[in-house]
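Appendix B. Raw example, untouched.
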Amino acid sequence: MVNVVTKHSISSELAQKMVDEAVAKARELGVTENVAILDDGGNLKAFRRMDGAPILCIEMAQNKAYTALFGVSTQDFSTLSRATRHFWPASPRLRVWRHGVEGFPSR
């Protein structure tokens, strides 16, 4: 068939393994986190909220994962965000977390 594209996406098994590894690392560091894994379309594939992790950070974790889909380092994305502030209102899911956001401390 013409104009059909085959694309690969993350499996649910791999997404769950990534969550498990992130939770293990958080425990090693002594912190509680919300871990979100998205597929290439920005859809939630796997998620875990560790006991004691802030409820309000659930959406923040998903938005940070969405931002990571761009394949740009946080530092480069931060530089871009400062240069193009008008870009943000049209893209509310794009986030750069540094030294806390909206009153939530970073860990």
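End of appendix B.
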